[in-house]
Design a protein that fits this description.
Length: 69
Amino acid sequence: MSKEKEIRKFIDKYHITYPVGHEKGIAKALGAAGIPETIFINKEGTIIKRHTDTIHFDELKQSIEVMLK
């Protein structure tokens, strides 16, 4: 299976609706260090937190809640 198909399968499986960094050099521009990597960016465009490896739902939820405060 091609890398593109693997990524699409993951996106479809987890119903991901946000941009995924494999497109148009986003991952490289943000300095992504691993796959998968979750990068939290605030509304000013500043990187607030990085999480390399799989992120568990509770940690994802907590990080988003902190950013929204």
